[in-house]
Amino acid sequence: MMMSDHAPLKMRSWLFAPGDSEKKMAKAAGSNADIAIFDLEDAVSTEEKPTARRMVLEFLDSQPEDRSRLWVRVNPLDGPHTLADLAAIMPGRPGGIMLPKVYGRPDVETMDHYLSAFEAAHGIAAGSTKLIVLVTETAAALFTTGDYKGAPRVVALTWGAEDLAASIGANSNRNPDGSYAFTYELARSLTLLGAATAGVLAIETIQGDFRDLVGLKARAEKVRRDGYRGMLAIHPAQVDVINAAFDPTADEIAEAQEIVDIFAASPGVGAIGYKGGMLDRPYLARAQTLLALAGRG
Predict the structure, then answer these.
(1) Which residues fall within 8 angstroms of residue 63, CB to CB, at 6 or more apart?
(2) Residue 297's pLDDT band (boundaries 50, 70, 90)?
(3) Quick count: other Cβ atoms within 10 Å of Cβ 260?
(4) Which end of the chain is more exposed for a tag (fewer CB within 10 A), N or C?
(5) Residue 219, number of CB atoms within 10 A of its CB
(6) Average pLDDT of the chain?
């Protein structure tokens, strides 16, 4: 029996859980996270990967029919584990795959071919297994962040700083004050620009200190203002903070609706007075985007 396409999902919070821990996978799946990601890569040692694959499949099989919010991070294509990961977990029909350490669009196209074969083999609707792509974990990938427009299956781009630091031989990815150094802020910006070019979601990387919820709130709200639409999480305590940060506030919604209404009342006008200033069409576009984000568009 072929699966039907999944309904659109919110994708504000993406919570990782190690694929070799049934307890943590259950906690992630039962959380308020929009997406739960069962990790077969960094969270699982090489020796434990076969066990983790089996555990992820068993967990997927134990879940309700709609598994669209249950995703799996597989191992990168430049290693020996990716096909074994997919062969093990695709019978469980995950909603999507996180592809790490890409070098560029050809990696996505290779993954599309693999997924197409596994979908056909397991009676899964063609193209229904979506992709989020980690586009900054290798130095080469930063030069290709604008190449994903029309890339098959891709619904989101995200970035990472730790593997990038290792890729370029850096001792640290932080400034003395704890902020990201220039190269990593560049990676964040290129991810945002690449996602906008591709017409997909930009998803912010993790905050490692899961106890600092005040700092998480400030960071999530800041990147949402910049254009990011969600954030990766490593602990359930982060989820509600992230969800709230990426939902527009009542005041933002009210102001956006007011701007849309003002322009609607004066069709064809390029600029219009508002609160002592002037608004032009880019302000209208931003207001419409915010309303769409809030489900009002």
Answers:
(1) 29, 70
(2) low
(3) 18
(4) N
(5) 18
(6) 92
- Rounded CA-CA distance 182/146 in Å is 19
Q: What secondary structure letter does DSSP report for 287?
A: H
User: 115 phi and psi, to 5 degrees?
Assistant: -65, -35
Could you tell me which residues come within 8 angstroms of residue 196 by beta carbon, excluding any fewer than 6 positions away?
202, 227
Contacts (Cβ under 8 Å, ≥6 apart) of 278? 271, 272
d(CA 158, CA 132): 7
What whole-number distance in Å separates Cα of residue 7 and Cα of residue 9? 6
Phi, psi torsion values for 70, nearest 5 degrees: -105, 110
- Direct distance between the N- and C-terminal alpha carbons of the chain, in angstroms, rounded to an integer: 35
Do the strands 277-280 and 230-233 form a parallel or antiparallel pair, or are they unpaired? unpaired
Residue type, 110: T
Fill in the DSSP letter of residue 174: B
Helix 49-61 / helix 22-29 crossing angle, nearest 10 deg? 40
Find the helix or strand (DSSP H, E) in which 156 lies.
strand 154-158
Asked whether the beta carbons of 213 and 237 are under 8 A apart, the reply is yes
Structure tokens at 272: 């219009």
What integer is the mean pLDDT of 104-127?
Answer: 98
Closest-CA residue to 294 (of 261, 260, 246, 241): 246
Q: Hey, what are 61's tokens?
A: 């099989």
Residue by residue, DSSP assigns 64-86 as -S--TTEEEE---TTSS-HHHHH
- Name the residue with tokens 């802020």: 185
Left if phi > 0, otherwise alpha if psi is -120 to 50, otherwise beta: which for 193?
alpha
Cα–Cα distance list, 47 to 39, 81, 89, 209, 240 (Å): 15, 12, 17, 27, 34
Q: Angle, nearest 10°, between helix axes 281-293 and 250-265?
A: 130
